[in-house]
Amino acid sequence: MSVTMTPAAAERVKTFLTNRGKGLGLRLGIKTTGCSGLAYVLEFVDELNEDDEMFTLDDVNIIIDGKSLVYLDGIELDFVKEGLNEGFKFTNPNAKGECGCGESFNV
Amino acid sequence: MALLQIAEPGQSTVPHEHKLAAGIDLGTTNSLVASVQSGMPKTLLDDAGRDILPSVVHYQESGTLVGDDAKALAVSEPENTIVSAKRLIGRSLADIKAKYPTLPYQFIGDENHPDINTRQGAVNPVQVSAEILKSLNARAEQALGGDLTGVVITVPAYFDDAQRQSTKDAAAIAGLNVLRLLNEPTAAAVAYGLDSMSETGEEGAKEGIVAVYDLGGGTFDISILRLNKGVFEVLATGGDSALGGDDFDLALVEHLVEQAGLARPLSNSLERQLVEQACVAKEALTNNDSVTVNLTLDDNSQWQTELSRATFDGLIKGLVSKTLRACRRALKDADIDAEQVLEVVMVGGSTRVPLVRAEVEKYFNKTPLTSIDPDKVVAIGAAIQADILAGNKPDNDMLLLDVTPLSLGLETMGGLVEKVIPRNTTIPVAKAQEFTTFKDGQTAMAIHVLQGERELVDDCRSLARFELRGIPAMTAGAAHIRVTFKVDADGLLAVTAMEKSTGVEASIEVKPSFGLQEDDIANMIKASMSNAKEDIVARMLKEQQVEAARVLESVQAALAADGNLLNDQERQQVDETLKNLLATSQSDDTDAIEAAIEVVNQATATFAERRMDASIKVALSGQSVDQI
């Protein structure tokens, strides 16, 4: 199992978590929806669910549920700036196709 | 590729359905847009990295410029460059002319909806504001990577219905979905999270008094808010629409002119240089104890002086005291002591001046909140509220509510105002009240909607009039007419009247045709208190006059129907008392009218008995006792 974060992403996640003032960490996940079948989930976590796995990555607690783990193996989370827009971006080696907007994918 | 933001637990949206929301501070001089991303509110920047958009629109031969580009043309083409449109929005021409007599614009169009004549033809202040909103919307959509679900736009607490509606109209023209209009001081309080504060510091109690001190470039506003169960109520507003940081600059300019031994008139370039240098010096003195001011005089010689913060403080001391006097008045209006104020929020660039902070701290005996950039704090608060309203927060997060600034009601017989929704009612709200007809066979009713605290129609503000027609003919007082007042979340009013037996109804959405003067709301509230006694006296008089008219009406109707039941002498006596009542009811002697009504009642007692006997006889005729 390998999930990685770029330094930019790690720094932003820390800032956002500190600013929020509460929460266990950051949830990465997938859900079945979107135009290509699966969509990424990026959420703050206040409590753990039963099948959640938590681990630390660059001083940040990352939480992933068991079902999502399969799909997320090998992904890298990045924080990028594109013009005026800035936000997080996943690079997923498992994804075979992405929809035009990159918000959903299939494996 | 669309970029992702971190959502609250369980609030992730499905792709392509992001609920993007923004808060807009639509200011008189400058505007800003902010949004919450990954739980953090921040102002959004344009291509050049600026977050402040000057609220200036320039109309060209073809095309329209907004912001800094437009501002650059304000001096060379004043008639085609609209600045401070917010001061004109929702106001009648008479209002504007009285308030701002020296505007360079050519006003055309009708009295209640004045337009400005520009190179592109007639534009009205709503359209000008819409241009500013369009520009901010485009910036937000670029920065957030998608269409906005909705926006929260801030307006001054003293804005009346007309000005609020006009602001909403501007948003509609700009293609924006307005989730809520929010009072500026409330937005500032929200930015500091005061909506979840409590006196004891424990979460959830949510009450206390907040003062919002807003000193901008050209205006000063003080608002006293009370937070009660998560609802901000505006207790009082005050200020000075012609006092701000620009006046600090001018005071400094005068000082420099004197120090340099310059004599007016000065060249335009030197005047401009003085104003610029004064502004630079003022800002530098925020973090330094003294600054050096350099001027190039008209003869190209250089002049230099050292300016200490103490000197600057001395120059602006009088202006700062003026703001504190306005604070004192607002507190008095709100019936609050300075010690009762729990938090003081600083808004506006001029609150960076150390003397301002120090004096405010001294006056309220409390360290004012200054950690959020005072130029951005209103937009930040609006963004937080927009994020909640767009549904990006879990349900248990409280929804901020607002209140009606003035009572809403309608006119009843005799020019009296019946209040349907009292002031400071939390909105949205709907309230209904039943009314009835005054005359036999009355088939229509005029509904006159009013806003204000006074008892008499003439002392309140008329908002709208409409008629309910098609009421079935009935005796006076038999019809049930249900009038419903509905105020939506933005403080906009809709009134519906329905006759209950037939279901006929009529309604109106209140879009008043002109605005109240800035201080009118405060004055109206004050007037209602200082005139309370006269109002009650006036009300009692009107009530007796209405009662007299009702008695006259019904006796005359009865005489017309059953006049034959009286002999000539009795008839003459009744007529005499009626004549007397008619005459007395024109006077302003409440007791005399009441007495005259009583006289009529006594004089007609016998008549009433005979009428009753007669109608019983009719009912009983031809029936045996057994049948009854």
What CATH first level of chain A would be assigned? Mainly Beta
Helical fraction of chain A equals 10-25%
Main pleated sheet of chain A: 6 strands, mixed
Distance between the termini of chain B: 90 Å
Describe the structure.
The complex is a heterodimer of chains A (about 110) and B (about 625). With about 110 residues, chain A is of the alpha+beta class. Helices cover about 20% and strands about 45% of the residues of chain A. Chain A has a single domain, classed as HesB-like domain (Hypothetical Protein Aq_1857, Chain: A, Sandwich), CATH 2.60.300. The longest helix of chain A is centred in the N-terminal third of the chain and has 14 residues. Chain A is globular and about 35 Å long. Chain A starts with a strand and ends with a strand. In chain B, the strands form eight sheets. In chain B, strands 1, 2, 3, 4, 11 and 12 form a six-stranded mixed β-sheet that branches. In chain B, helix 5 packs across helix 10, helix 6 crosses helix 7 and helix 12 packs antiparallel against helix 13. The interface between A and B is medium-sized, with 37 and 28 residues.
Summed up:
The complex is a heterodimer of chains A (107) and B (628). Chain A is built from two helices and nine strands; from the N terminus they run E-H-E-E-E-E-H-E-E-E-E. By secondary structure, chain A is an alpha+beta fold.
Give the arrangement of secondary structure elements.
The complex is a heterodimer of chains A (107) and B (628).
Chain A: E1 4-5, H1 7-20, E2 25-32, E3 38-45, E4 52-57, E5 60-65, H2 66-72, E6 76-82, E7 85-91, E8 97-98, E9 104-106
Chain B: E1 21-26, E2 30-37, E3 40-43, E4 53-54, E5 56-59, E6 64-66, H1 68-71, E7 81-83, H2 93-99, E8 106-108, E9 115-118, E10 121-123, H3 125-144, E11 150-155, H4 161-173, E12 178-183, H5 184-191, E13 207-215, E14 220-228, E15 231-240, H6 245-259, H7 268-284, E16 290-296, E17 302-308, H8 309-334, E18 341-347, H9 354-364, H10 377-389, E19 402-403, E20 408-412, E21 416-421, E22 426-427, E23 429-435, E24 444-451, E25 461-469, E26 481-487, E27 493-499, E28 505-509, H11 520-530, H12 532-562, H13 568-585, H14 590-603, H15 605-620
Parallel strand pairs in B: 1-11, 11-12, 13-18
Antiparallel strand pairs in B: 1-2, 2-3, 2-4, 5-6, 5-7, 8-9, 9-10, 13-14, 14-15, 16-17, 19-22, 20-21, 20-24, 23-26, 24-25, 26-27, 27-28
Helix pairs in contact in B: 3-4, 5-10, 6-7, 6-8, 8-9, 12-13, 12-14, 13-14
